[in-house]
Amino acid sequence: MIPLYLSLSGIYSYREAQHIDFSKLTSTHLFGIFGAVGSGKSALLEAIVFALYGESERLNNKEQRGYNMMNLKSNEALIEFDFEAPGNKGQFRAIARGRRNSKNKEDVKFERSLYRVDGSKLIPVETSEITSIIGISYDNFKMTIIVPQGKFQKFLHLTSTERSEMVKELFGLQRFDLSFKTGLLQKKNDEVISNCQGKLQQLGEVSEEIINHLRNEILILSQELADLTTHIESKSKLEAEYKLIREQHVSLETNRKTLAELELKLPEMKLAEQQLNDFDECVSNFKSDLELLDEKKRQLATDTNELEKSSLKLEELKQKVLSAGTQLEAAKKLFESRDTLLQTAREYESAAEINEALKEFNSLQERIKTGEGKLEDVSKSLLALKAETVELDKLRETLRQQAPDFMKLQQLKDWFSAGKILSEKKQNQEEAGAKLQILSGEIEGKIEEIARISGVPTPDNKMEISSLQTEIKTKLDSVKLSYSDASHKLLNLEVKEKIQAYSENLQDGEPCPLCGSKDHPGAHNQESSLPELEAARQQKSDLENRIKQLETALTSAKILEESILRFKSESELLQKSLKEAELALSAHLSTNPQPGFREEQLNSDLQKYSKIQEELQNLEKKFGEISVSSNEQNELHRKYTEHLTNLQLSQGKAGEKISTLKSRMQILAEKDYAGITSEALTEKAAQLKDQHRIAGEDFEKYEKIHRDLQSEMQNLSGSTERLKLSIASLTAAIEETRKQLDVRITASRFGNEAAIREILLLKFDRMAEQQRLRAFHESMASVQTAIKQLEIQLKDKFYDSASHELIIREIAALKEQNDQKLQLKGAKEQSLLRMTQDFAEAGKLLVLLKKLETRKDNLKTLSDMFRSQGFVNYVSTIYLQNLVTAANERFYRLTRQQLKLELDPSNNFRIRDYLNEGQWRNVKTLSGGQTFQASLCLALALADNVQQLNQGGQNFFFLDEGFGTLDRESLELVMNTLKSLRKENRIVGVISHVEEMQQEISSWVRIQRDEEKGSLVTNSWE
């Protein structure tokens, strides 16, 4: 930290405002603040510390700090301190304001504020951020930057524990406390070891001997399966031959039955063919002529009826034409005189307009007078609104200057809002994790339910469902084998039952339904196996239900497997998302646009901004209201002006209109309408217009009626003549058609017209009937051909059902053996694959476990090292030793190579005395001057390290008192030491009452005490 400027008033002995430009003092790197005892030198340092930290070395809050700090003759106090922060953080201003309660002089309250100086702008900063800005706490600030009077030697006499804690805080040594991180690594390593050991236990016993034995068993099973396959193929060929002969016997019997049925339908088919031929002949020779004859008869009857109606209507039309001609002549006479009616009606309307125009002229005269008065009132209102706008504009500008910078507040608000969103996102991820845990429990419950239904044991690791599926498949395969046995057994029993039924129904001389033989010398005869058959059917049904149950369970397991995969995937994604949310939140917290600015201060500034904005909005609202009123008044002014102009124009037009209307009168004189109301005149005009309109409408109506009746009569006369010609033509055509048809009917085999019409009235689908007859003949031919082919194929062939059943049972037994061996081989191959994978996995786990055990030993060594902050204390000792070494470079020279500082085993300071053969002694045995020298050297060493920590280009240090204890020679050594610090780019301020020191320092300020004005500051350059 480098001081730049200090202004204070009303503090301790500083009654009037005093100013110190530190930039001129620090330019020489060594400056002094001099004055007599009690002049107020140390008060300057205390004012700086209070402005920065709100703390005072002399007083605390319980000791009425505010009252005692304020000058007793002052009612207000002010401290303004500008400084440059280390690490290129910029320039800042710390302000402390105090005010005395006018009613209670002992009630004094101070308010502190902190700003970052950006050109001419002051940007507010939270006062709590001062420690991070300067990089040092209040207690350590007093030790290394400004050491209050009487506390300069405190660091030298601190206990070892207090000194170590101070060093830890100054240099951030807590970063070397790695015990927690080491514990996390140990815990993680132990979890991985436990996991590896658990996996090894799950793998069980596995070795190369077991794997080789399984491979040999699989080879033997493969050879046995090949032999079974060859045997099954040979048996299957023989069984296929038996099956073909049986099917041919059954097909022959079926075709014979079909042929007998077809022969029974043959007479019906012949009758249908005859009916179809008769219908086709009638349709071909007579249908069209008969239909034509019937159509002409219908047309003749229709035309005759229409002729009678037209003749009657023609007579009626002749009478209507005569009547319409009489009415048309009367309407024509009225139509020719209607123009006079229309002109008279128009002049009555003009007379009504003259009356209305006179009324309007008089009314406009009154309105013009009223409008002129209103226009004058609006002009006065506009002048008042303009004056009010000027006052409000001044108030708005004042409020705008008081408002905080909204853009910066919005930036901070966005930062806090983003932080809340990220926190909520992290919380949502954690809640989603809790839901996944619930889902995990539900999945495990479903696995237990599937295992219970399937009758298999629940797997140890419920999330590894593949073992459960394997158990269910094994159980399902076993039940299917039992089902196959039950099916074979049921088939044998059913065959026996059918053979018994056939045997009981055999009669000598009747053919056997299987072989066709009429002799039955060895008919099968045994007791009924019905009870055993029912038991076999029940067993098969139970096994079918069990298979469905297991298949359902297996399907559920497969579906659940997908759920488990999704659960694992979602768990991984959730962990990743949670980690990303945590990283995002951490990254966000590191991007605070204004470190140390609390949300409460933001809310306060936003409230202040909102309040000012609300006031501005109210002002704007008033501006708006005034603007609206002004606009309204301007609009009224414009409207009134425009309206007056329009009224005057309208009045002129009304006068012109009256003159024009009077000039148009031709039929009516002024006496004809004078004294008559406008309504009566308008009504007279309307009546005349109605008479004019009615005369025109009547003429057009009667003219159209007469014309339409004449046209209708002409059309009807033509239609009547056409009907007469059509009737004559139809009568001749019917006679001719009748003669020709009678000749053809007489020559046909049907005899008369009635028989032909009866055949044509038959209702059936000709195409469908043809297809039915064709299909019948094709079926009969096909069956006959099939019977002949089957009789040829079955010549000298006999079907033995018992031999066939025996071969079927042998094939089933062979297939059963084959399936069993296939299942056994599959199980062993799966076991081989699993054991091979487990063997490889076990090898990897053993190698990993060995590495983890080694890491466990190393982590234990580190844990022992970092326990109870042992490593931090070790680093603290090194830092203290480095401080002692740095301090001795000056202390050994200041004491003329007689004394050195050391640390004892407990990290307490002691002195190595070379005047007494290098023996050590307690620091409390030092003289006052020697103690000052030792403290100065330690303080300079501390400041060096703090400067390196804060990465400052320069460092600043105040020395307050202690020089009065030095003799002249020691004082000279101290001054030479202080002057040499200029080469180290260090700035040192010396506070003292010793006159000799003032002679050695070129830049200084002097503090003098005035009885009336208080402490006054004098600069060396003035």
Low-confidence stretches: none
Largest sheet, if any?
6 strands, antiparallel
Shape: flat
Q: What would the average pLDDT be, to the nearest integer?
A: 79
Structure annotation, total helices: 24
| Physical arrangement of strands within the biggest beta sheet | 2-1-4-5-6-7
Distance between the termini: 26 Å
Please give a structural write-up.
This protein is α+β, with helices and mostly antiparallel strands and 1022 residues long. The strands form 3 sheets. It has a 6-stranded antiparallel β-sheet with strand order 2-1-4-5-6-7. It has a 5-stranded mixed β-sheet with strand order 11-12-3-13-14. The chain has a 3-stranded antiparallel β-sheet with strand order 8-9-10. The radius of gyration is 64 Å and the shape is flat.
Brief synopsis:
The protein has 24 helices and 14 strands.
SSE map:
Layout lengths: L1 E8 L8 E4 H5 L3 E6 L5 H13 L11 H5 L6 E10 L4 E11 L7 E11 L2 E5 L4 H5 L3 H7 L9 H4 L2 H12 L7 H25 L4 H57 L1 H71 L1 H65 L3 H49 L11 H40 L24 H60 L9 H65 L6 H4 L4 H70 L5 H8 L5 H28 L7 H66 L3 H25 L4 E5 L5 E5 L5 E4 L5 H23 L4 E6 L7 H13 L5 E7 L2 H6 L2 E8 L3 E6 L3
Parallel strand pairs: 3-12, 3-13, 11-12
Antiparallel strand pairs: 1-2, 1-4, 4-5, 5-6, 6-7, 8-9, 9-10, 13-14
Helix pairs in contact: 8-20, 9-19, 9-20, 10-17, 10-18, 10-19, 11-15, 11-17, 12-14, 12-15, 13-14, 13-20, 21-22
Keyword list:
1022 residues, alpha+beta, six-stranded antiparallel beta sheet, five-stranded mixed beta sheet, 24 helices, 14 strands, 71% helix, flat
